[in-house]
Amino acid sequence: MFTTDDIRKEFPILAQQVHGKPLVYLDNAATTQKPQCVIDAISEVYTTYNANVHRGVHHLSQVATEAMESARTTVQQFIGAEQRHEIIFTRGTTESINLVASSFGETFLKSGDEVIISALEHHSNIVPWQLLRDRIGIELRIIPLTEECSLDLEAYRRVFNERTKLVSVAHVSNVLGITNPIKEIIDIAHSHDVPVLIDGAQSTPHIKVDVKELDADFFALSGHKVYAPTGIGVLYGKEKWLEAMRPYHGGGEMIKSVRFEKTTYNELPYKFEAGTPDYTGIIALGKALEWVNSIGIEKIAAHEHALTRYAVEQLQRIEKMRIFGNPDGAAVSFLIGDIHPADIGTILDHLGIAVRTGHHCAQPLMDYLGIPGTVRASFAAYNTKEEVDILIKGIQRAVKMFG
Ligand code: PMP
Prior knowledge:
The chain is of the alpha/beta class. It has two domains: 133 residues, Aspartate Aminotransferase, domain 1, CATH 3.90.1150.10; 255 residues, Aspartate Aminotransferase, domain 2, CATH 3.40.640.10. The chain is built from 14 helices and 17 strands. Helix 3 crosses helix 10 and helix 11 runs parallel beside helix 14. The termini are far apart. 4'-deoxy-4'-aminopyridoxal-5'-phosphate binds next to helix 4. The site of 4'-deoxy-4'-aminopyridoxal-5'-phosphate has 13 residues, from helix 4.
C-alpha cells in the first residue's frame, strides 16, 4: 500500500524550491516528472550495456536488444494488445499520428475520401490530416461539440457517408480534461466499416487502456506523459492494417533486402522502425510502465479524479470563475472574468506553482469557445490535496491583483 508521500519520495525533482517556494507541479498534461527508477534505467544503459540493438552478435548488443524487446512486451501488456509486433516505437503521439496519416493515408485513401476528427483535437491530430489533404486531396469532417463541451454524437452519426475512410479522435481532451465515449465512437465507426485511430496521449497516464476490448484500430501514446522520458512513444496498430500499409520512413532495420532495383521490407514491427531506435528511451518507457503497474493505474486514476473533483469544487467558489467542460479526468481548464490566463500563470509561477496557460495546442477549440486560452491545472500520481489548496490561494492572490 503506497501513500502519496511514498510516491513523492521517488521523484527527486519535486523536492526543490522555485522562487523560494516549494515546487507545486501541476503541468502534468504537458509532461510528467520521472521517478528515480526511470532515471536509473537510463543511467544503467549507458554505464553497463549500451550497444546498438538487433544487428550485433556481441554480448552488449544482445543485452540491449533483449531489454528493448522486453519493454515492447511490457507496452503490449500495458495497453492490452494481442500481439507484440502490433507495438511500433515512435517519438511520441505526434509521430504516431503522422505515421498513420502518411502510411494509412497513402495506402488506402484517395482524393475526395473523408477523415473525421473532432472540434477538440490537439494540433497533432489536425495538421497531419491537413498535410495529407494537401498531398492527396482528402476532406476533413469535424465532429462539433454540444453546449456542455462534449462531443456531439448525434452529429457524429450523421457525418458518415460512403467516402468516410477513417475516424481519428482524442480519448481524453488535453484542454477540457473530459473523457470521450471512445467505445461508442469506435462502435459507430465500425458499424460503417470505418477504422478508428485514438489519440491516447492524455488517456494512457490516467485510464486503464485495453485496445483489444476497445477494438481500436490504432492507438497513439507519448511516453513522457506517463513518467517515461521525452522522445519515445508508441503506435499500436492492428496487424491487418500494419501489414497492408506502406512503410513510413525508409532506412536501416526496416528492410529485408536492398538492391538498387528493388527493396523488400522487414516484418512487423520493424517495417515501421527505420534507423537506430531510441532503445534507451524504450527501455526507460518499459520501466515507467512497470512503475505505474507497481502502484496500479486504477489507484492512480482514483487519486487524480479525487484531486480534480476537489479542485473543481474549490475553483467554483471563486467569483467570475468559468470552468470549461465537465472534467472527469486529471485536468481542469478555467478563466476568471477577463483576467488574462498568462497573468494568472505568472503570479502562480512566483509562488512556485507550475500550471499551463494559453491555447494548449488546440487553437480551433479556443476559437470554438471564443476565448484566447485558458489556465490549466493537471494532476499526476504525486500531487496532493494540499497542493490544490496552495493553487487556490495563489489564484485568489492573482484575482486580488488583477480582478
Ligand atoms: N494529443 C494530445 C491530446 C496531447 O495532449 C498531446 C501533447 N500535449 C499530443 C497529442 C502530442 O503529444 P507529443 O507532443 O508528446 O507528441
